[in-house]
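[Automated response] Your request has been received and processed.

Submitted sequence:
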Amino acid sequence: MRVKFWGVRGSIPCPGPQTTEYGGNTACIELRFDEIDRLIIIDAGSGIRELGNFIMANDLPKGPIDIDLFLSHTHWDHIMGFPFFVPLYLPTTTVRVHGPVTHEADTLEKIVGGQMTYRYFPVRDAELAANLQYFHLKEGEFDLGDGIKLTTKYLNHPILCLGYRFEYKGKSFCTAYDTEPYTNIFCSDPEDPSYDEAMAVEGELVVAEQNKVLQDFVTGADFLIFDTQYTQEEYEGSKVGWGHSPMEFAVQLAARSQVKKMALFHHEPMRTDKQLDALTAKHCSPGNDGGTEIFFAKEGMEIIL
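Generated structure:
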């Protein structure tokens, strides 16, 4: 497997002189299986525009383009690049779009294609020439053919969001964003008038169970890409419940889960290159916390498993 980052930011693209080193595009990851000629894309943030241009120049000359596009969820920063993905305008292209849907009435096709109406964009989704197929995904295990296996896991985000674990020839590659640690939503302060001991205890049990399920999902991964939009201080200050994790949680989770390599991902759009360099020195030193190799994802970075 070969993994390449085309977009690493969360929330909104942030191009400019302070983001040139790590990149300013929103989430898009290319996953290649060269020996079986399979191409998978995870998320269609603004980074997918440049990936589309690359595919047109390098894949199209070899034959028709065939892609599986997996969406972690349908928040705009993860689908905004879809209308600008040039292979969609070729009649010879096939794209199978997979992803979760929160409400059955709003299909994946309606949500993703709904960006392409004349109110927002000059081309309607009905005018796309490619063979587009949509598949509603839930938690489960799937055989993608050619020896590729996929496991999906619901994450902790304000709408349904899926983590993906791909396995091929004994190697595993896992994504877990957008997500945050599970926390007890019931009052745990006995002095608080709203405190209910039974509910507080039940809440703690559910939290422990769900955090364990997430840990099991990433355990032993050869490569994990994990949400780390915030520092612990930022998270506790005002970001609890926003659906993103602090870096400290991710580092500790990777160590507990025997993850071999982890990319810290979904960077806060206000985070500058200089700040990310400082956070690299803090969180990514060899042996700093367990044996996991840790780094902040950069656009253009490629990992071979």
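Summary generated for your ticket: The mean pLDDT is 95. The helical segments are 48-58, 108-113, 197-218, 232-239, 247-256, 273-283.
If you did not submit this request, please reply to this message.
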